[in-house]
Amino acid sequence: MTRDFEQFPDNDNGDILWQMQEDGSDLTEPHEVEYSIAFEKQDQAEKCAIYLLLEEQKISMYLDEETDPNFWILSVHINMELDYADINDLEEWFTKIAHQFGGEYDGWGCMTYVYDDEDEDLE
User: Which segments constitute the Regulator of ribonuclease activity B domain (predicted)?
Assistant: First the structure.
C-alpha cells in the first residue's frame, strides 16, 4: 500500500500512524490513547489534574521513579479513533495546559491489537 501523505504526513505522528496501519492496526477502531505531561513538583501536577478532571478527562498520576524520580507524570486517557488531525489538536491543547501549570507535554502512546481471522477460529 502506498502512503497517503495527506492522511499520514511526513513527521513523527504521521510516521507512527502509518506504521500502525502497516502493522495491521485498524485506526478507525477506538484505542485508549495516553497523553503525558511531566511536572517537577507534585503540587503543579495536582493542580493540573484538578483542572483536567473539571474538563471531564480520565487521568492518572505517578512519580516517575524508573526514568527520573524528580518528575511527576500526569497521564490523560482518551478513547478515540487514531486520526492525525485529532491527535495534533489534542497535543496542542495538552501543550498549552502543561505550560499553564508549569509542566511540559511529554507525548502520546497507545496499545495496538492486531487480530487475524485465525485467532477467532481458535475460540
Answer: 11-110
